[in-house]
Amino acid sequence: MIKYDKLRRVIIGAPLDPLSQTTRQHIALAAFIAWVGLGADGLSSSAYGPEEAFKALGAHAHLGLFMALATAVTVFIIALAYNQVIELFPTGGGGYRVATSLIGPRAGLVSGAALIVDYVLTIAISVASGVDALFSLLPATIGHLKLATELLLVAMLLVLNMRGMKESIRVLLPIFVGFCVTHLLLIAYGVLGHSAGLTLVVPDALAESKKLVHDIGWVAALSLFLRAYSLGGGTYTGIEAVSNNVQTLREPVVRTGRLTMFYMALSLAFTAGGIILLYLLWQATPVEGQTLNAVVFGSIIGSLGLGSGINQAALLLVLVFEAGLLFVAANTGFLGGPAVLSNMAADSWLPHQFRHLSTRLVTQNGIVIMGLAALGILLWSGGKVDLLVVLYSINVFLTFSLSLLGLCIYWWRKRRSDTRWSYRFVLSGFGLAVTSGILVVTTVEKFGEGGWVTVVITSLVIALCVGIHRHYDEVKARLKEVDEIFSTARCPTCENPPPLVPEAPTAVFMVGSSRGGGLHTVLWVQRLFPNHFKNFVFISAKAVDAQSYGGAEQIKRLEGTLQRALSFYVDYCHANGLAATARFALGTDRVDQLVKLAEKAQREFPNSVSFTSKLVFRNETWLTRLLHNQTALALQQRLHLNGMQMVILPMQL
Length: 653
Prior knowledge:
By secondary structure, the chain is mainly alpha-helical. It has two domains: 19-470, Amino acid/polyamine transporter I (Up-down Bundle), CATH 1.20.1740; 506-652, HUPs (Rossmann fold, 3-Layer(aba) Sandwich), CATH 3.40.50.620. 69% of the residues lie in helices and 6% in strands. The protein has helices at residues 2-12, 21-27, 31-44, 49-56, 64-88, 94-102, 105-135, 146-162, 165-192, 195-216, 218-231, 241-244, 253-281, 292-302, 308-346, 364-381, 385-392, 395-413, 421-485, 515-528, 552-575, 590-604, 622-627, 631-641, and strands at 506-510, 535-543, 579-587, 608-616, 646-652. The chain has a five-stranded parallel beta sheet, with helices on both faces. Helix 21 (552-575) links the parallel strand 2 and strand 3. The protein is elongated. The two termini are 36 Å apart.
């Protein structure tokens, strides 16, 4: 155990104190750091989104001018709409929380399932694309090592994120900065250095567009443009990442979130729109074995007249940073995915374990499941980017559309009480029209090419969530029945309670959130050991999970909940002439905190025995064991190893 703990600390890092305000300040993300960690997914889409849109224009490349403008404007429209999400839901949750709160739980489930699948695919496609880009610069004879490299990189990102969100971002920061600097210089020079061509492109584009409308009609011309625009919809992926992780931002979170969103929108609009404009100005045409970005950047660097050797080195550096940014974008899946899992677990759509934080204050279970799922997708697909792109192309716009529909509903309901409703309703409505249009076109165009696989996978996730939710609802209903049985229990506050006798036999009860479950255990102990125990000590521990770890107010609220729950047991014992006291603790690991409380009770009351209850199901399966943690058994093992006695009393449901 000691060796394991030392190894864990070396790999993951020393534990952090969730109750320390200093810790919260240390791990909270400033706008710039958040832009790196959460904006990389959107910015990396400029490596493939603009190319897809421009290629879809075919022989009508002159429409690229309007495509560049439409892309930049769309990025800002979606970003402004998601600023509303940040403002309305400052505790995070993004598209899932918006759809759940403003449309309904079922819409939230669909949005959440789509986000989960997309974040897994974000990891898989980003790593696969980055490895493809790097291996295109290496000899073809080692191409068979690509899949192994992809799997290794996913494993490395998994471990890196286990250390903490800010730590993972800082490691990847140089790559992000390198991409931004190189692409800023290339786009600025490519446009300004070709200013003479720019003065010709605008009138030519207008003239060619008029001719196209005259030849095929404005409906057909507009349809051609909208199809290409929709097929380049991958450019807008990742914009929702900030709203999903607002709770991780530095205070004030709304201001930090809006600033982060501005950084993301500005960088993506400039990069994606600028690259499309470069295609048009430099007359980029596809070259076998090269991306369109590589072609146009090669032309720009070649125009500098630095010599072939320097040109090749400069282009290599640009492409390495572009590939590297895809790895940074993969990290967004490890940041955003666990946040969605946590929010859905809080609503009982997923196992409650996904809410728990590790000693490094990250949603450890979520990070692991996202990493394992990405590894599985890569193994199944063989790391083929073409297949992964198709899988990735639908769900993100499903989430966009549901979120913007929710905002439209919200502002329509607020039309009589909020003067801002009209502007925000129009903004949300326009964004909904754009994203739903892209969703329809993408689904129709890509369904037969593999888009159906995304629909099937997302449907399976939804079905699994429905089954889990139904089970939790049944358990809650049964526990509620038990609580109602004990709701009439007398527990008035006693002014002169019986005194505690430390040397006397003592029963230590480990209680949870179910009042009925706690009293069930107390009554069984009195029945099994009549008049034996003179002291009754109630201990409870709450895990500071992803929902409660949002600042000092949430921690105080959690402490207040524990105090009220324990006061009931103490008052009940006093009302029945029994000496009682209570203790509680907060931490990331409930078992650790309960063991510490039990050890402290043992020192204060040497003749003590611990008791707790455990839910027992008539037809127990692997699913029930997964959905209900084995806290009681883990506690019993830990206490027995420490030479302390503990009895588990079954509570059948």
